[in-house]
Amino acid sequence: MPLKLSTTDADFASAFTALVDARREADEDVSRDVTAILKRVRAEGDTALADYTQRFDRHDLNVSGWAVTPAETRAALDGISTELRDALELAAARITAYHEKQKPQDSDGVDSAGVRLGARWNAVDAAGLYVPGGRAAYPSSLLMNVIPAKVAGVERIAMVTPTPNGEINPLVLAAAQIAGIEEIWRVGGAQAVAALAYGTDRIRPVDVITGPGNAWVAEAKRQLYGVVGIDMVAGPSEIVVVADGKNDPEWTAADLLSQSEHDPTSQSILFTDDAAFADAVADAVQQQLPKLTTRGVATASWEANGAIILVRDLDEAMPLVDRLAAEHLELAVDDPDRYFAQVRHAGSVFLGRMTPEAVGDYVAGPNHVLPTGRRARFSSGLSVLDFMKRTSFLSLTPQAIGAIGPAAVALAQAEGLPAHAASVALRLK
Predict the structure, then answer these.
(1) What is the average pLDDT value for the chain, to the nearest integer?
(2) Residues that are catalytic
């Protein structure tokens, strides 16, 4: 059964702290295994990729083909239903429109001292995108990763995806065709991340790697940060729902289960000020679980990591919500903006009773690649900025260096750096 807490419980503070601090991510064994994989791929390149693919995905890359051809992606798009094609195109259009608004502006101006100052933004040369694979792959993840890179202006985008038994979900290929991805490799796991970072004879290295994956993929990205840029270290999915008793318990239960079905380590938490509603939601979850094709995973997640927390009022819930810093936060109340104003830490917030998190996974527009594991305290969801970097610039006239140069000389001398001081002082004579 899920954890049930009340802020009136004598041990609430310690119990809630334990919930906040609970670790649901990679253990030392994963870290050790990933280190070995990265080392081997760096040393052996394509040979290591072929061996790992044979071992984990059960097919020979030299037979099934290393790369997906443009003809395969076109055929996949042609082969799906009109309904699904329209859905993918709607999602792509909305995601593009949202991310176009994120493009930063260059700056260039002269300040009061006569110093010209500014910054110029450029896209990285190449991005690597990891898309979870197999028959249960997610075309939505492809769109969420590819489109910000396209909007940023990245010239080369290389996608990697695992292909168990050599198979790729046709919806993923259809999404790739819609998104305009031409470089797709049939490799996955930590080894694919290593190939993107280090490069092999076949796969050229990239500058940034983004995209969700399992614990091994997340750990590979963590270990390779610095060799390449990454979006984040993604962990198990999370949802926090703040709801009063005016909500339909069936809706709230479905919202909680929308994350529970991702993985046994996913976490779903309800805050409410209505005890009867809390019980009704718990009952609704139990009624819905058997009907899900994902019931095994969802049940394991709900029983191990689910929680229902009763608060005196919803204002009391908000500091607790901030401590969780969840990936997804639903505010299912009459005046969600009132409570949203109290939120500092959340990956993405869904306002009102008619805004389920699941719509954000597909067609709303904001990116669904979001920080997990309380990382929303210091990081944000995937954006155009993850595929760009800023170069500052400045230009001084004789008058400008005369105005600010003496202060630079003084500071350089104070820091014991005479060559620094001289490089400025010589221009002041």
Answers:
(1) 96
(2) 327-328
